Amino acid sequence: MIEKIKQFFETHMAPDSSAMDQDPEHALRLAVAVLLFEVAESDYKQHPDEKAALLLAVQEHFRLAPGEADELLGLAEAEHADSTDYFQFTRLINQHYSPRQKVDLIEALWRVAFSDSELHHYEEHVIRRLADLLYVPHTEFIAAKHRVANP
Prior knowledge:
77% helix, single chain
């Protein structure tokens, strides 16, 4: 498993990677999945509803089959364990996502946070920090939260 992850990063995430130049979607998918995973893990609880929300978010965001979404989340979990900051992930997203796509991502993060019917202050803190790093205006951050909390 570790070799598979290393190979993925060498192929898709290296700054000078030709695969990244040709198809940044692979690296973007992983970056988004890691951020979603970060929100789910930020309250230090592994709730089954959050796991299901993570899987659904990845499936919907990227139109993946359940098996593909599981594999992406496995890679995201491993990358999350090895990461020390958000910059490498938010940088990719900032380079390739439109402002609307970034707001959609913030909504997906809120859906994961609210999936267990309990918004922990750590989850909110992480989403606020990610919104700042993604240059999502505070008004959009709040509007996304309200859209998810009050469907």
